Amino acid sequence: MSDWKIRFGTAGTSDSFAAKGYKNSLDIPAYTAEMGLDAFEYQCGHGVRLGLEKAARMAADAAERGILFSVHAPYYISMSSLEEDKRLNSVNYLLQSAAVCKALGGRRVIFHPGSCGRQSREAALEKALDTMRRAQAALDEAGYAEMTLCPETMGKIMEGLVLAGVAMSLYGNSRPASGCEHHMSHYWEMIFEQTGKRPVPHGTQVGVGTVLILKLVEALRKTPVDFDAARASAIAYDPFSWENKIREAYGPAAQGVIDMESAAGKNETAGRLARIDRIEAHWEEILTLLEGLPSSDQIAHILCSLDSPCLPDQIGVDRTLLKKTYLYCKEVRARYTILQMIWDLGLLDTLSDHVIDTLPFADSSKEPLCHP
Q1: Listed residue (24, 18, 131) closest to 79, CA to CA
Q2: Model's pTM, two decimal places?
């Protein structure tokens, strides 16, 4: 049976290392074990300076505690540099890191491959792959064939995920990372399940939902808001009519949505009127925040560049389902999102029609948002 396992550890030490009375690198295994962790990424970001004898002593202590080391190679590495000397030096930095990693009893060398610089992504990738092949050959020749080179290529994505996780932990639920684009995806999954269709992956649907919400925001920013009309719409709200529409839109799942609204009361007139007052008082601030969002075209082109759908028609969502989605997916959760705000303002029906009319569907001659 494989001895592979998921390990958890830190990358380097923090202020707590000295605060707990630890003095030098030899104390790292004890420091790691005290936190209940079983991995440690030794940092050589500013150069490989750890002696092999000292590394071996650390390895012996770590092994007794069930801790596995890895090594982060120097930051100077540039696998795709336009200068060949820098690419060759990158290979040497990886060799030095591998030597220390082996002495530490580790098997993984982590490194930043560098950036494109003044060249295309394609040219940079070609150089990086060539440098990677040279590095792996050099490691094999030097006796480090068991080492795995681990380029960090997902840094920004991981940073975003970690920050989202921290925000959710501080807030106490998933609201900071799950808005109405997720509600769209959940609604589609419900409807597809009821009709015997298999939805595309949740994240793919969220990508399309993000484009759709940004398009709605763009329409909102161009629309003069009549706050008195919004108040009149709030006063005219009929919960019985709303319930009938929910039963039609959600089918067998409707009762759960109705019960949730009964408990939350997010659509009730009194609360809606109070929110409209606050929205009007802070409308210019809200518009400023909305202006800071990326454009729907930007997100669509990013998705297209990844061969990911960016249009509802590409994931099986037609005009009729999209209209229901805009109007009713906000009821999936008792949360206040941009869809709820636009509904509060009495504009959701009108603006969603506008957006849908601009989108290309299989039965239209409109051009797609981008060409893959």
Answers
A1: 131
A2: 0.67
